Each structure stands twice: as C-alpha cells, then as structure tokens.
C-alpha cells in the first residue's frame, strides 16, 4: 500500500470507545458530583482506566439511593404522621441554643418535643435486659433495626424473644443491614425468616446490577415497642457487647431508653427504613401511636443518609460547635471527619472554648487508627485536647456542648458515617442529661495525645498512616 496506517481498525475502534467512555463519564461526574475531590478522583480513575474505571463508577460512584428516595418521597410524606398532631408537645427554645433549635427544625422538618424521659444505659450488660424485657412485654408491635445482629448467644436470645412475640400475635418487623449482619450469609435473618418473623435485609442483593448499594449501609440501631418505648444509640446486638463476661474482643458502648413524644419520631424513622426496603407501609395504629410524655427532657431525632437527609447530622454538629462558649466534649470510636469539621473544631479552640476529643487507644479497625493518626495534627495545633481512652474499645458516639446540649446516636465522626451511611442521632436540650454525659466522657480522658507522640513515629509508620488517610471516605 502507498500509506501504511500506524494502527489497525480494531485499535481505532478501541481508542474511540475509550474516548467515548471517558467523555461520557466525565460529563456525568461534572454534572452530579458536589464534592470537588471526589469528582477529580473519579475523572482521574476513568482517564487512567477507561473500561475498569467506568465499571467502578457505575457500581460505586452513582448515588442511586437519592433517586429511589425521591421516587418514594411523596409516599413518605403521607406515610409519616404530620407533625401538627404533636403540637401539644412541641416546644420553642430561647437563649443560647435557640438558633440551633431553629436551624435543625428547618433542616429536618421535625419539631423539638417535650415531656420525654431519657435513660442512659452502658454496654450490653446494662441495655440488653431492658430491651429484652420490653420485647417480652410488647402487646401490639415491635420495630427493630440493627446494623449488626449476630446469631451468637445474645443474638439467639433476642431472636427467640422476637419469635415468641410474633407467635403470640405481636406485629414484629426486623430490619438488618445487608453488610453489617452478613453479606453472603446472614444466619440471624435466615433463622427469623424460617420461624415466620417478617425480616428484611437493607439494600442487599447478590445481583451484579444491584452492587451499587454495596457501599451504602444502614448503621442505625432502633428498637420501638408498641410505639411508646424506644431504644437507640450505638449498641449492636452481639456477645462482644457483654463486657462483664469478658469476651475475646469486648466492645463498650452507650445506648438510651426513651419514653415520650420523641419515640414517635424514632418509630417514623424505623417505619420509613422498612418501607424503603420492602415497600410495605406499616399500620399507624399499631406502629406509630402517639403517647404522652413522662419526663422533662426536650429532644428531637436527626437522621442522615445519602438520600434526602444528606449531611444533616454533620450540619447539626457544626452549628452546635459554632454556638459553643465554654466546652465541647466529643467521644467517638473513629475520628476521620472532613476538612470543614476539623476547621470548626479548631476555630472553637482558638476562641477559647475547651475542646476535648476522646478516641480509643486501639479501635477494632486498625486502618482507621492509622488514618486518624495522620489526620489529628491540625487539631493539636489549635489547642484541641485529644485523649486516648483505655481498653476495652469504646464504641460510644457522644457530643456535649457547654454541659447543656447533647447529641447521641449511631453516627461516628468519619466521612462514611457523615455522608454514606444511614444514621440516626438524637439531640437533647437537657442540662441534667448533658452533665451526666459530660462526666462520662471526661472519665475516659486517660492519656493525652501530644505532638511528641505523633513525631516519634518512624518514617515507615508515617507513610503507612498517610497512605491509609487517602482511603478516608471508604474506611
């Protein structure tokens, strides 16, 4: 031939396909990704690996949960009890935290409600007996949502109580996470289903076209009995939480028993999760009854997730930090927040607020500890006091501001919890509760972390920690 082409027709087609994929995916990323770093990262992956990068983006980069939530949001509005019905318990606040209460109300569309009784329970040893007793005494309905529900000794006991309740005519609904309670096998799910208990796995599927949901988890822990008694916090259902029995890997935690109007908000969240997963709208008269309060606490439920509740827990915490005057106490099992959270904490410390952050000496996920070590230095520069809590590993998620406002629940202080997981927290405007939690957090200030501790790490350790930090959104 007069002219020899430098590449074959096949090479030309492959090059066109690569260009088409990179262009199409990049345009989609530019139009849909709010986070600049995430957008740049995905575009880079697709440029370097057009075919594999496109597959990964289709599986993990597109938030299909938001689309599903928006499709269901009309039904959700009618599915949720109108807040007007709770007007007799609604409260308006004044004083230091009035702007916070107003902002969170607009953010969540839920009111602050009064007349609640809130009891703090520690570890499975303190919480499980109350939860099991409530299940035994259930007469109409049980709503249980748990990230981890193991089929060990305590899991078996919970399951048997739920099965007994179902057999005596109580309407039972159990929702477990599709990852946390076992992805390929979920023994507790299979056991409950086999005994006839209505049970579902949140966003679980082994089908390839359903794999985009693999990275999205329901991290909430909710138990509501007859619509009048609720439990929520950080406690999963597993033998490891029975600390006094000295399991191989003990996990300490904090949970809360609630009675009063705020239980209605708690039940709404569990009912929505069930509807989101199964499409079944639960009977209001059985699951969403309203009950008068027995206490004096003002409280409100705040949810977050990659649907219509995106980042609401983080926004609540940021506003509370902004309003702080004297002290901020934070206790979390994992500390890997984004830059804006670190900035707000640092600014609070610089203006004279005493900021205490308590993290475990060793968590149950070593890569998270490595990434945290590489992420903590900017806080120390601003005067934030970082403390290690001695073993056993404490899984509590607690925040107290000025010994007057508390924020408790399932959300860790990491990007996964704040932006990817479905989480639930409760804010309380209760000085007594805040002082109890503040004292509890301060009891775990066992060893202060300093710049010296970070600087004495050898070079290989620093490289390891910095490398782990690159995976913050996925740890």
UniProtKB/TrEMBL annotation:
- Annotated membrane topology: Multi-pass membrane protein
State the Gene3D superfamilies in the record. Endonuclease Chain A
User: What PROSITE patterns does the annotation carry?
Assistant: PLD
Does the keyword Membrane belong to this entry? yes
Q: Which CDD domains match?
A: PLDc_CLS_unchar2_1
Supply the PANTHER family for this chain: CARDIOLIPIN SYNTHASE (PTHR21248), PHOSPHOLIPASE D (PTHR21248:SF22)
Extract the InterPro entries matched here. Cardiolipin_synthase (IPR022924), CLS_N (IPR027379), PLD-like_dom (IPR025202), PLipase_D/transphosphatidylase (IPR001736)
Span-the-membrane segments of this chain are: 12-32, 39-60
Question: What's this protein's name?
Answer: Cardiolipin synthase
Question: According to the lineage, what is the superkingdom?
Answer: Bacteria
Q: Tell me where the signal peptide lies.
A: none
Q: What's this protein's function?
A: Could be a virulence factor.
Q: Boundaries of each PLD phosphodiesterase domain copy?
A: 214-241, 390-417
Which UniProt keywords are listed? Cell membrane, Lipid biosynthesis, Lipid metabolism, Membrane, Phospholipid biosynthesis, Phospholipid metabolism, Repeat, Secreted, Transferase, Transmembrane, Transmembrane helix
Q: Where can this protein be found?
A: Cell membrane; Secreted
Q: What is its EC number?
A: 2.7.8.-
């Amino acid at each position: 031939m007069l002219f020899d082409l430098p590449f074959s027709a096949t090479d030309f087609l492959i090059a066109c396909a690569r260009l088409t994929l990179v262009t199409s995916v990049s345009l989609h990323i530019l139009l849909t990704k709010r986070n600049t770093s995430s957008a740049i990262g995905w575009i880079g992956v697709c440029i370097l690996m057009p075919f594999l990068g496109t597959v990964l983006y289709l599986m993990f980069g597109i938030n299909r949960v938001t689309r599903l939530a928006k499709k269901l949001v009309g039904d959700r509005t009618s599915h949720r009890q109108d807040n007007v019905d709770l007007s007799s318990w609604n409260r308006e606040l004044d004083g230091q935290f009035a702007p916070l209460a107003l902002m969170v109300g607009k953010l969540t569309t839920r009111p602050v409600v009064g007349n609640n009784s809130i009891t703090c329970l520690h570890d499975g040893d303190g919480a499980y007996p109350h939860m099991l007793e409530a299940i035994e005494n259930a007469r109409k309905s049980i709503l249980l949502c748990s990230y981890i529900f193991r089929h060990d000794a305590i899991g078996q006991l919970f399951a048997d109580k739920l099965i007994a309740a179902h057999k005596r005519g109580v309407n039972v609904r159990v929702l477990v996470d599709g990852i946390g309670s076992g992805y390929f096998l979920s023994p507790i799910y299979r056991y409950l289903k086999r005994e006839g208990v209505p049970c579902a796995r949140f966003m679980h599927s082994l089908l390839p076209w359903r794999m985009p949901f693999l990275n999205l988890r329901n991290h909430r822990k909710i138990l509501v009995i007859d619509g009048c008694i609720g439990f929520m916090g950080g406690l999963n259902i597993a033998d490891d939480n029975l600390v006094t029995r000295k399991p191989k890997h003990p996990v300490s935690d904090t949970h809360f028993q609630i009675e009063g109007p705020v239980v209605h908000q708690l039940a709404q969240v569990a009912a929505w999760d069930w509807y989101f997963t199964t499409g079944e709208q639960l009977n209001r008269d059985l699951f969403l009854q309203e009950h008068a309060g027995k206490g004096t606490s003002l409280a409100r439920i705040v949810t977050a997730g990659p649907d219509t509740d995106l980042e609401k827990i983080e926004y609540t915490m940021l506003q509370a930090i902004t309003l702080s005057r004297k002290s901020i106490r934070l206790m979390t099992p994992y500390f890997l927040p984004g830059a804006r959270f670190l900035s707000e904490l640092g600014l609070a410390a610089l203006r004279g607020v005493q900021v205490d952050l308590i993290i475990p000496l060793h968590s149950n996920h070593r890569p998270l500890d490595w990434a945290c070590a590489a992420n903590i230095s900017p806080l120390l520069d601003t005067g934030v006091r970082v403390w290690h809590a001695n073993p056993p590993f404490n899984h509590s998620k607690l925040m107290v501001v000025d010994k007057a406002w508390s924020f408790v629940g399932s959300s860790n202080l990491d990007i996964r919890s704040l932006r990817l997981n479905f989480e639930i927290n409760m804010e309380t405007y209760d000085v007594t509760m805040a002082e109890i939690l503040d004292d509890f957090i301060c009891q775990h200030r066992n060893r202060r972390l300093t710049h010296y501790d970070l600087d004495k790490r050898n070079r290989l350790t620093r490289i390891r920690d910095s490398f782990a930090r690159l995976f913050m959104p996925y740890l």
